[in-house]
Structure formats: structure tokens, C-alpha cells
User: What shape does this take?
Amino acid sequence: MTRWSVGVVIPARDEEDHLCACLDSVRLAADRVERRGDRVEVVVVADSCRDSTVAVAESIVRGWGAVLAVEIGSAGAARAAGVRAYLARHDHALEETWLASTDADTVVPETWIDHQLGLARLGVAGVAGVVAVDSFTDHPAHVPARWAGLYDGPLDDPHPHIHGANLGLRADAYLAVGGWAALEQGEDRRLWAELQDAGYPVASPRSIVVTTSGRAQSRVRGGFADSLNVLGEAS
Assistant: This one.
């Protein structure tokens, strides 16, 4: 059975309050696949941080990852920098290297990496899961129902949602389509479209679910929080 090298890239901007929970969840997911021989390393890309994000990240990932401090101001460019840093540290075959992406305000399930690699072993080059929201407290009362309406469906059915907080790609396919674009937002949808346009096999199962913050203030314009705010604009 193929032993995969997995790089988990996490961009973070002033995320000292959420990063511990995120990295703890990624560590559990990594432990699960490392027990059978896969290798996992995390790269936290601290972009334009003015809080203790770097110190928090360094204290947690020491020995199983790296922290990259940058002043980019772009989620796409930050993700791309994290991938470059990870690939520069490894000489594993690109066809057996998996690049998983999540966000610093997100918690992944223990099966997160395992499920992605299961699809990778079947020949899938890209996996897009879905997101749940930890709390809708900051939003109008009608938002949870609207959100559920967008994401409901049989677990095995594909879905149309693409989130950088729950994405995985095989490294050779990622490089072939040019990788993450230097965009402040929408980099995830663009990369996914390029992967599909190039003819790579992809999967978008509803069964791979991460939980992200329901905060109303987005770290970047057009980010996830802004998407929730749009749902709350009309009653």
C-alpha cells in the first residue's frame, strides 16, 4: 500500500484565539494515518499577524511542523507559500504527496486526512469537503436554516461548495495547474476549477465535514464570515 507524505497548510491572520483548537484537531488526524506509515507535517503561514499567532503556532507544531511568518495580505499567496515551504523540505514522489488545506479558525475531524487519502488511493487528485458552523450566535435567527438549506443532501452525493478550509490535492496535479493564485479570496474556487478543467479526477463528498468559526467579522474581504453575513442581510 502506498505510503503518503502529507502537508497540511494553514494560513492564519491574528488567530491566537482559535489556532490551538485547530492544530490539536490536525494532530489527532495526523496520528490516525501515521499509525499505518503515512507521514504528516503541518505548515502554519502567519500572514500579517499583529497578535501572538506566531508564538502560539511555534509552541504547538515544534517537532512535527513549521511556522512561516509572512507579510502578504493574501489568502491565496499565503497558502501557496505554505505549499512551497512544505515541498522544499521533502523529496517524496509528487504522485504520492498530498496537500491538505484548512483554516486557523477551523477544527477538523480525526478522520479528515484518512478520508482524503482513501480517495487518493483510488486515483482521485482533488477532494473538496464541506463546512459546518460552530455557532450562529453573531447572526440573525434565520441564518442557520438558510445555511442548512444550502448544505443539506445525502452524504454520498457530490456537492457544489468549495472551501479552502476543507480541500486536498495531489501534489503533481496541484503543480500542473499552477497552484494557489495570489488572491485575497476565491483562491479555492479558482484552483478547483483549474483542476477540473485539466481533466483530473475529483471528489466532493458531503461526508468530509470540518467545523469553522461562525464569527461575523471576516479576516479578509469576501471571506467566510462575509458569506454568512450575506445570508443574514434579508429576513
Q: What stands out?
A: The helical segments are 19-34, 53-61, 75-88, 112-120, 143-151, 171-176, 187-197, 224-231. The beta strands are 5-12, 39-47, 65-70, 97-101, 106-107, 126-128, 130-133, 167-170, 202-203, 209-212. The radius of gyration is 17 Å. The CA atoms of residues 76 and 183 lie 5 Å apart.
